[in-house]
Amino acid sequence: MTTRPTRELDPIANPYPDRDYEIFIEAPEFTTLCPKTGQPDFGVITFRYRPGPFIIELKSLKLYLWSYRDEGHFHEEVTNVIADDFIRFAKPKYLEVVGKYNVRGGITTTVRVEYSPEAR
After folding, report:
1. What pTM was computed for the model?
2. Residues tagged active-site
3. In the prediction, which pLDDT does 2 show?
4. Residue-number span of the structural domain to which 73 is assigned
């Protein structure tokens, strides 16, 4: 397994596919760059999901989030892209991704993305 940033998430077979349970993951060291100024934006990305056929291996998630460190993204965009990729790799029954970004210019931003296949 690589130790470099990557846009690949490693799905692992859900060890309890017949059980409905939730997984909470918090990544308190997320960074990306402001696309306007190039300055770093810091935030906490939180995942809450009910696994479908797969769970996501945590090291791959860490390396995935690390891949945004040197790129410019608006908070709304990056939170939605992270959710889209998580959905593509994990195929969850339910997913909530929250990006809570630190204060910049006196303003904080929180972006919440929710996904449920039956709501589509």
Report:
1. 0.94
2. 34, 41
3. 56
4. 22-119
